[in-house]
Amino acid sequence: MFTGLIEEIGTLRSVQRRGEAMILGIAASKVLSDVKMGDSIAVNGVCLTVVDFDRSTFSVDVMPETYRLTTLQRLQTGSPLNLERAMMAGGRFGGHLVQGHVDGTGTIRGRSSEANAVVFTIEPNDPRLLRNVVQQGSVTLDGISLTVVSVDRDSGTFTVSIIPHTLRETVLQIKQPGDVLNVECDILGKYVDHLLSLRDGRPATKSGGLTESVLRDNGFM
Hints:
The protein has 221 residues and is mainly β. It is built from four helices and twelve strands; from the N terminus they run E-E-E-E-E-H-E-E-E-E-E-E-H-E-H-H. It folds into two domains: 78 residues, Elongation Factor Tu (Ef-tu), domain 3 (Beta Barrel), CATH 2.40.30.20; 96 residues, Beta Barrel (Elongation Factor Tu (Ef-tu), domain 3), CATH 2.40.30.20. Helix content is 14%, strand content 39%. The strands form two sheets. Strands 1-2-5-4-3-6 form a six-stranded antiparallel β-barrel. A six-stranded antiparallel barrel has the order 7-8-11-10-9-12. Keywords: Repeat, Riboflavin biosynthesis, Transferase. One of its GO terms (molecular function) is riboflavin synthase activity.
């Protein structure tokens, strides 16, 4: 489990590809301070297991399912990466519950400035992901815990607003329209949507969406 608060930006040092499987070698510093074999580290929002490490790098395996579902397949040597160690019990919980289980990807359709913030417009690769994206709710982009500013179901997009600190400390600083990010929807929303679909006897993929009216009608508000 993670919080979505990025600890450092690492650098991809090596990529070994075997079909849809990969071994990534990642240069880092902070996340290596107490690393152990088998530890979980979120790499651009993807929960991966440390299989080898030394003083300056660690290695992780990427299985075919993760390769197909995430942006890790697009990585090249030298790519910057958001890194976060698994959260510690008793630590401050400043983000939201992030599993590192990516739901899909999203393409940046817009980037604009608004006072001290930068607003990103994201179009999920699978429109069904929008049913679990709620205005003022939480979403994870490349491992970053963010608040949803707006959802436009007509255009199939949502927006997030990034403060200067988050922009400086994450890979979002270099992301531009056309770039693709990993998207993880809020786990609480996914469970509520799933349970409501079971109660109503309809597949979750055909639900009307987790909206404010649905939550109110079912006693959640």
